[in-house]
Write a structure and sequence with these properties.
single chain, 145 residues, alpha+beta, two-stranded antiparallel ribbon, 9 strands
């Protein structure tokens, strides 16, 4: 079925399929968010302090109506209550069929997982992040201590 963001049935159908695919892939929804905010699903990257988060654009029982709105996949590093972005937003535009959108979302999550695993580590053990200029730096900013 070709997705049409103006059709309530399509938005609900996509929301159901996204939730199912994310749950099957080992993601769990973050709890404690305001009901008017979009659902965010998270999965830890085993053996690290990384998490992959999927900002689904699901509010209530359907995805938002805004056609230009996208699903975002990010990799983050969480240490001592601080969260730092590790892998930039990988957008999934809601175009094509519902199956295609679902598959692209899962593929972006896999790509993000690979980037989280391959970024490298600083001599202090913390993961390396990449600056806007493309330079690697310690996520714990150990050189400032």
């Amino acid at each position: 079925m070709r997705y049409d963001h103006q059709e309530p049935f399509h938005r609900a159908f996509l929301a159901t399929h996204l939730r199912e695919a994310l749950q099957t892939a080992g993601f769990t929804p973050l709890v404690g968010r305001h009901p008017a905010e979009e659902e965010v699903w998270s999965r830890p990257v085993e053996g690290t302090k990384f998490k992959i988060k999927v900002y689904t654009s699901i509010v209530g029982n359907e995805v938002r109506m805004v056609g230009a709105d996208a699903i975002r996949v990010v990799g983050s590093y969480e240490n001592g209550g601080q969260t730092k972005g590790l892998v930039g937003n990988a957008s999934v535009h809601r175009r094509g069929t519902v199956e295609d959108i679902k598959e692209r979302t899962i593929q972006r999550a896999r790509d993000t997982w690979l980037k989280c695993r391959s970024n490298g580590k600083c001599k202090c053990g913390a993961p390396l992040l990449v600056s806007k200029k493309g330079n690697a730096y310690c996520s714990d900013l150990c050189w400032k201590r």
